[in-house]
Prior knowledge:
With 221 residues, the chain is α/β, with parallel strands linked by helices. The chain has a domain at 65-218: Rossmann fold, CATH 3.40.50.10230.
Amino acid sequence: MSKEYLPQEDITESTYTDIGADTTEGYSISARSRELARSVIGDNGPLDRIRQRCSIAVGDFAMADLMRFNNHPVEAGLSALNAGVPIYTDIRMVKMGIQKRGHHSEVICVLDLHVDSKPTESTRTSAALGSLGERLQNSIVVIGNAPSALLTLCDLVRKGITPALIIGTPVGFVNAAESKEVLRTLDLPSVSNEGTRGGTPVAVAVMNEIITIFAEENKIF
């Protein structure tokens, strides 16, 4: 966000930050929403901050109890952002939603990259993600829509590819819940949610809250 709303010298533990808000009204709405989320969910560290933001994103505080965090994902995400690793997304909507301010990582939709062959048995997103191979090593991968892509990514992890962080919150009744269950069996940092809910708003909310924490810590606005 601009210095009009949060001068760098005013950053404290109690200061609210939204680097995605670029108008007075937008920041006011965001701040009021966060205040309400804090009162309902609690405010005990970064994981609660992510729970708050995800609940705001879907307009339902029940989302907070569905979030799952494995192997210190916030710390892993902050370290990856500090290294400037690429952030890969499954669809363009997720790419568009991720904040471009507050960090130095490139945000890339896998559908915009070259795919070795036209998919015949898998989805376009799954084929595109699978074609990246080693390029996913030490990256951040954000999947908000495609369960097939998340399952492909999990297969790549089993074969030795280790992203720094996977955010997997695909939505739907076919393989969405199952793909997230598979993700949680992997021994690497991840954020996911239980059940069929999720989607682009949740994935974007998780990534943007980690970016916001990173921006606060490094005073990047």
